[in-house]
């Protein structure tokens, strides 16, 4: 069928639908209007399947239209789910106003663009029914939260606008009593975090405002329902909240929170993940012995000091810890042997602190360990044998370790062992572990090479200079000899060429060309011999 015929019959079919007294007419019209906004569909799943010719019963929801779901009894459209189709186009909410029972609208993972501003006039009917709205991972912009429009979505349970370019400040959400999930990460939002989101007045279970421009402090968090709280990568400041009652996962990393970190001892012991990295917190590492479910603790880099890490590992060996990172602090102490009981540990990072003592052999019991970084500390003694075969990250450089490198660790690059560890050996036959390019030893060899080159160049220059001086002197003597013969032994007036160099009368004896040649080569030999002797001293 050629294009003109196709459009002609499509128009006739649509006209027939509109003239039919069916309850689904407005909804079909809405979907087809929405389809017009899609300019690219690489898979053709939407553009091909959303075809009015595929409808045989106008009272029933189009069963084969991609991403469309309907109520089984009424046939009304209840869901549009077109996730990760790489669709391109402009979202126009007003085209969906006739979908009177739409509950789920998910267009995540596409290339939709345009403004996402909501006005009171064009969303009221849609806002009354939608419960799940997800347009994350698109290219939408604008201010979604203008005026009081968000308050119209009083049935909303989940709102996900993550990874777009939505700007503005957040309004109050207190009127959204049904809201359970709010995800606005990676946008251009700013201002303060609304207090009502963190209070018992709401029933939020997950709040993600990460990677925005929020400022100010977080005063009180007394919500008893929030399980996941992510406020990372903002510009929040002030002290940490003094209480946290229900969270299992909290991420406040990459902000400017300050003050004593010990306040987390007052947080609910149900924590599973705590990430406070890249802030300005100080003090000693707090006790987390009561956190029986803690699997991840990330406190790098802060301003922590003392021996709290040793005490923590010593008193909490049975925690289900999988990730323990306190790198880039000023912590001290030793690594207790009880760490071997933390059998679920996958990452251990104590780098750039002041830990000392021996590395316990019990580390070999951590068979799930994939990353171990103990670099830039003061560890001594041998590296334990039979560390986890699952290790893909290993670094003990800049310590004072000695002995043989275990065979199963020799697959790691030289940078895993030095600089530092001068007494560490790769094998019994090697005096020490091979040095890295650019380390002190190689720099020393490089310096020696440079000195040799400088000596040689200086020697050659000296020979040339002396040769020039002696040649000038020889010519002056010859000229004076001929002058005395011609002018009765009297020299000519003015300075002779030799006097320009201020030679003393006893500095060099009168010499012929032959004696000059011998002196020149003798001097060159002495200079080169001196250079050789100097090199041997290096």
TrEMBL record:
<dbReference type="Pfam" id="PF00560">
    <property type="entry name" value="LRR_1"/>
</dbReference>
<dbReference type="InterPro" id="IPR001611">
    <property type="entry name" value="Leu-rich_rpt"/>
</dbReference>
<dbReference type="InterPro" id="IPR013210">
    <property type="entry name" value="LRR_N_plant-typ"/>
</dbReference>
<feature type="region of interest" description="Disordered">
    <location>
        <begin position="416"/>
        <end position="444"/>
    </location>
</feature>
<keyword id="KW-0472">Membrane</keyword>
<feature type="signal peptide">
    <location>
        <begin position="1"/>
        <end position="23"/>
    </location>
</feature>
<dbReference type="Pfam" id="PF13516">
    <property type="entry name" value="LRR_6"/>
</dbReference>
<feature type="transmembrane region" description="Helical">
    <location>
        <begin position="451"/>
        <end position="473"/>
    </location>
</feature>
<dbReference type="Pfam" id="PF08263">
    <property type="entry name" value="LRRNT_2"/>
</dbReference>
<keyword id="KW-0732">Signal</keyword>
<keyword id="KW-0812">Transmembrane</keyword>
<keyword id="KW-1133">Transmembrane helix</keyword>
<keyword id="KW-0677">Repeat</keyword>
<keyword id="KW-0433">Leucine-rich repeat</keyword>
<feature type="domain" description="Leucine-rich repeat-containing N-terminal plant-type">
    <location>
        <begin position="26"/>
        <end position="71"/>
    </location>
</feature>
<protein>
    <recommendedName>
        <fullName>Leucine-rich repeat-containing N-terminal plant-type domain-containing protein</fullName>
    </recommendedName>
</protein>
<feature type="compositionally biased region" description="Polar residues">
    <location>
        <begin position="427"/>
        <end position="441"/>
    </location>
</feature>
<dbReference type="InterPro" id="IPR053059">
    <property type="entry name" value="Inactive_SerThr-Kinase_ABA"/>
</dbReference>
<dbReference type="InterPro" id="IPR032675">
    <property type="entry name" value="LRR_dom_sf"/>
</dbReference>
């Amino acid at each position: 069928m050629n294009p003109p015929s196709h459009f002609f019959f499509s128009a006739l079919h649509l006209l027939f639908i509109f003239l039919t007294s069916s309850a689904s007419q407005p909804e079909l019209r809405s979907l087809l209007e929405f389809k017009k906004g899609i300019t690219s569909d690489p898979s053709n799943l939407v553009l091909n399947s959303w075809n009015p010719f595929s409808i045989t019963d106008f009272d029933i929801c189009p069963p084969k239209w991609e991403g469309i779901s309907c109520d089984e009894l009424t046939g009304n459209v209840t869901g549009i789910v077109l996730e990760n189709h790489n669709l391109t186009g402009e979202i126009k909410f007003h085209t969906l106003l006739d979908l009177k029972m739409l509950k789920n609208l998910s267009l995540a993972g596409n290339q939709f663009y345009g403004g996402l501003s909501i006005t009171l006039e064009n969303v009221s009917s849609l806002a009354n029914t939608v419960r799940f709205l997800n347009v994350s991972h698109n290219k939408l912009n604008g201010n979604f939260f203008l005026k009081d429009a968000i308050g119209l979505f009083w049935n909303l349970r989940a709102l996900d606008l993550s990874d777009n370019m939505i700007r503005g400040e957040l309004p109050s959400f207190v009127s959204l009593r049904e809201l359970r999930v709010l995800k606005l990460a990676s946008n251009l939002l700013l201002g303060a975090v609304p207090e009502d989101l963190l209070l018992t007045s709401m029933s939020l279970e997950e709040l993600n405002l990460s990677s925005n421009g929020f400022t100010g402090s977080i005063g009180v968090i007394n919500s008893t329902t929030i399980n996941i709280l992510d406020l990372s990568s903002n510009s929040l400041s002030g002290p940490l909240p003094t209480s946290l009652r229900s969270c299992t996962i909290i991420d406040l990393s990459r902000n400017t929170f300050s003050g004593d970190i010990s306040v987390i001892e007052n947080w609910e012991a149900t924590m599973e993940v705590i990430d406070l990295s890249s802030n300005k917190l100080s003090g000693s590492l707090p006790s987390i012995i009561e956190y029986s479910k803690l699997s991840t603790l990330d406190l790098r880099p802060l301003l922590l000091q003392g021996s709290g890490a040793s005490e923590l590992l010593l008193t909490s060996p049975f925690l289900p810890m999988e990730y323990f990172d306190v790198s880039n602090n000023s912590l001290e102490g030793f690594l207790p042997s009880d760490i071997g009981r933390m059998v679920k540990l996958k990452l251990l990072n104590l780098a750039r602190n002041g830990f000392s003592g021996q590395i316990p052999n019990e580390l070999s019991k951590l068979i799930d360990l994939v990353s171990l970084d103990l670099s830039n500390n003061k560890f001594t003694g041998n590296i334990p044998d039979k560390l986890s075969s699952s290790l893909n990250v290993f670094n003990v450089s800049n310590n004072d370790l000695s002995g043989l490198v275990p065979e199963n660790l020799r697959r790691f690059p030289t940078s895993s062992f030095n600089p530092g560890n001068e007494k560490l050996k790769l094998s019994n036959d090697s005096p020490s572990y091979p040095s890295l390019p650019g380390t002190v030893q190689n720099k020393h060899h490089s310096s020696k090479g440079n000195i040799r080159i400088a000596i040689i160049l200086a020697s050659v220059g000296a020979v040339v200079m002396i040769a020039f001086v002696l040649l000038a002197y020889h010519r002056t003597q010859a000229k004076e000899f001929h002058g005395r013969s011609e002018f009765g032994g009297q020299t000519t007036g003015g300075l002779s060429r030799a006097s320009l160099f201020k030679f003393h009368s006893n500095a060099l004896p009168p010499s012929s060309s032959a004696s000059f040649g011998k002196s020149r080569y003798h001097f060159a030999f002495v200079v080169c011999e001196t250079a050789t002797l100097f090199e041997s001293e290096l």
